[in-house]
């Protein structure tokens, strides 16, 4: 009975246009994010063949998330989180397109990759804070627990699918094409976010 009630709640939630647009865009973008992370690691190895640099790039990706996300959450409570999310996803897409361009023109080296990875980590820290803070403002209050649970499930699903997509893309089309495709996943999410409106703008944190 509990499972049936949960799936009914999910069904009702996904019929709400705001959340349907959000979930569609988020799912695609999260797969893109994890594919992009794999592509960055793969590129690191191709450039250096160094375990040290693999660790350094992984640290550059993770460190901004750990340090900045709490502060980004505070900022998300004080600004229009939908606009913040749109901006962050746009910057993430531009980052992916820039990576594709640098690879195409053979202008990338490990130091440039290190800097660009730090920048992406900072942007994604703000993007995550805005995205999570925005969810309760998209739907009626009674659906918030279900939305949070579904959001978590989508995130974990993307962690599995994204690397698989990246491996297939890199094997078939190369790293540059993988970055190009991930850039378009952000474009899809930005488009979806222009189709939604916040039902409430007040902070949900106390």
Topology:
Blueprint: H1 2-14, H2 17-48, H3 51-76, H4 81-104, H5 110-134, H6 144-173, H7 175-193
Describe the 3D structure.
This protein is an all-alpha fold and 206 residues long. It has one domain: MFS general substrate transporter like domains (Growth Hormone, Chain: A). The protein contains 7 helices and no strands. α4 runs antiparallel to α5, α4 runs antiparallel to α7 and α6 runs antiparallel to α7. It starts with a helix and ends in a 13-residue tail after the last helix. The model has no long low-confidence stretch (mean pLDDT 92).
Provide the domain count.
1
What is Rg? Answer: 18 Å
Strand elements, count: 0
CATH topology term:
Growth Hormone, Chain: A
What's the main sheet like?
none
* Number of separate helices: 7
Report the principal-axis shape.
globular
CATH class: Mainly Alpha
Mean pLDDT: 92
CATH homologous superfamily descriptor: MFS general substrate transporter like domains
Q: Ranges with pLDDT <50 over ≥5 residues?
A: none
Distance between the termini: 33 Å
Helical percent range?
Answer: over 70%
